[in-house]
């Protein structure tokens, strides 16, 4: 399974970004291999529709689960349409690697 984790930079040492549509980077964790890849969120600075574009990118990247701090109504609707699980983490001061380690168990 592929899980998308919102990130502030393109490294697992970067802080977790609690904004879904406005996150700077998307970390894709392949849960079978443990491999992570990073994809720049080209729409983070968009005037509008960032959440919808993020949801489209999530589908394009093949993620079945998204971990972020918040999802707007349009993004939520699109993710639900594609049966993509949304996980909200509200903790402060987490790094991407902290979430990756939790998933790996």
Describe the structure.
The longest helix is centred in the middle third of the chain and has 12 residues, at 50-61. Helix 1 runs parallel beside helix 2 (73-81). The protein is an alpha/beta fold and 105 residues long. The chain has a single domain, classed as 2-Layer Sandwich (Nucleotidyltransferase, domain 5), CATH 3.30.420. The protein is 29% helix and 24% strand. Helix 2 links the parallel strand 4 and strand 5 (85-88). The two termini are 15 Å apart. It contains three helices and five strands. 28% of the residues are buried. Strands 3-2-1-4-5 form a five-stranded mixed β-sheet, sandwiched between helices.
Describe the structure in brief.
By secondary structure, this protein is an alpha/beta fold. It has helices spanning 50-61, 73-81, 96-104; strands at 2-7, 25-30, 36-40, 65-68, 85-88.
Topology readout:
Elements: E1 2-7, E2 25-30, E3 36-40, H1 50-61, E4 65-68, H2 73-81, E5 85-88, H3 96-104
Parallel strand pairs: 1-4, 4-5
Antiparallel strand pairs: 1-2, 2-3
> If classified by CATH, what would the architecture be?
2-Layer Sandwich
Calculate the mean pLDDT score and round it. 97
The termini sit apart by: 15 Å
Largest sheet: 5 strands, mixed
User: Which range best describes the helical content: under 10%, 10-25%, 25-40%, 40-55%, 55-70% or over 70%?
Assistant: 25-40%
Main attributes of the structure:
alpha/beta, 5-stranded mixed beta sheet, single chain, 5 strands, 3 helices, globular, 105 residues, Nucleotidyltransferase, domain 5
